[in-house]
Amino acid sequence: MVNEAGAWDGFHRRSTPLTAEQERSVVEAARLRREIDVLVAPEGLEFVDRSPIIGTMNALAVPMEVQVVSGAGESPVVEGRVTFPGSYQGPPGCVHGGFIAAYFDEVLGVVQALSGQPGMTANLSVNYRSPTPLHRPLVFRARIVSVEGRKIKTEGTLHHGDTLCAEATAVFVSMSAELLERLIKIRQASE
Predict the structure, then answer these.
(1) Which of 114, 120, 129, 136 is most buried as measured by Cβ atoms within 10 A of its Cβ?
(2) How many CB atoms neighbour CB 132 within 10 A?
(3) Residue 160 — very low, low, confident or very high, per pLDDT cuts 50/70/90?
(4) Is residue 33's pLDDT more than 70?
(5) DSSP 2
(6) 46-62 residue pLDDT tens
(7) What is the chain's Cα-based Rg?
């Protein structure tokens, strides 16, 4: 919403006033956001349902199909498959690196949860190796490297066919059931 100073709430200040048409668009966008909030707030939804990456209830997500491809007796490996449309462009014809980092965070988060001690991201490091193309099938792969007390270390890769586009490592810190419950209550109170 635009405030009295002509700034978008949560964004930078505008240097020029909105036109009447732009103001109508702002009002309509706010109305649609309120409607979406009602649609995605039903009781019983898990936090993954709201994920901007794999959340089926999140209209902004380009859903990544995630599956465990190995497990029983060995360190689990999770694969995430996605094709980014043009709206995810950074350099011409390529996926923006920020989206790549976000999708790594999600797939590494899924695999770390398989440790039995799910936690939150403490550190995420991404090394970009090759441009990541838009409109092409991509595969993220993630595995657990180690579990040391509350620290769960993970690593992953991003491939387009045989081309390594990026690599990532992350450290997650497991959280207590009490903390998770408290975070859920905070989220519910804000809805």
Answers:
(1) 114
(2) 26
(3) very high
(4) no
(5) B
(6) 555 556 666 566 666 77
(7) 19
Residues in the chain: 191
| Helices and strands in the chain: count of H runs, count of E runs | 3, 6
Q: What's the mean per-residue pLDDT of the chain?
A: 80
Whether 153 and 146 have beta carbons less than 8 Å apart is answered as yes
Please state the CATH superfamily assignment of the domain spanning residues 58-180 in this structure: Hotdog Thioesterase (3.10.129.10)
Residue 152 has pLDDT above 90, yes or no: yes
The amino acid that residue 32 corresponds to is L
Please count the CA atoms within 13 angstroms of the CA of 174 that sit on its side-chain side: 18
| Extended beta strands in the chain, E state | 65-70, 77-82, 119-128, 138-148, 151-160, 163-174
Q: For tokens 């923006």, name the residue.
A: 96
CB-CB neighbours of 43 under 10 Å: 6
